[in-house]
Amino acid sequence: VGRRLYYKLGRKLCRRDYLRLFGQDGLCASCDKRIRAYEMTMRVKDKVYHLECFKCAACQKHFCVGDRYLLINSDIVCEQDIYEWTKINGMI
């Protein structure tokens, strides 16, 4: 057992599980504001987002279950905007 425990949402978590569930620094990958323990979040790989921040960086559309997107750095881009987003940002 490790030396440090984290307490969140009434649960005791080891460091690995805390980081897996809540991210490295507790900040939203989109707005860089703190994510509080009671807030609902979305997770993509090692990035954690407030629900209201989990939207397309190009058109600002919020995603629904089953929507396809691409994660580019910390930006989430919907399937319809991927080509234009990468073109505008010099990626193609």
Automatic annotation (TrEMBL):
The protein's GO terms of the molecular function aspect are: metal ion binding
**Highest taxon of the lineage:** Eukaryota
Keywords in UniProt for this one?
LIM domain, Metal-binding, Nucleus, Repeat, Zinc
Q: Which SMART domains does UniProt cross-reference here?
A: LIM
Residue stretches making up the LIM zinc-binding domain: 26-88
Q: Which GO terms describe its cellular component?
A: nucleus
| InterPro entries linked to this entry | LMO_RBTN_TF (IPR050945), Znf_LIM (IPR001781)
Asked whether the UniProt record includes RNA-binding among its keywords, one would answer no
Where is this chain's protein located in or outside the cell? Nucleus
Gene3D superfamilies under this entry? Cysteine Rich Protein
For this protein, the record's PROSITE patterns field holds:
LIM_DOMAIN_1, LIM_DOMAIN_2
Which SUPFAM superfamilies has this protein been placed in? Glucocorticoid receptor-like (DNA-binding domain)
Output the PANTHER family linked to this UniProt entry. Answer: LD11652P, RHOMBOTIN-2
| Protein name in UniProt | Rhombotin-2
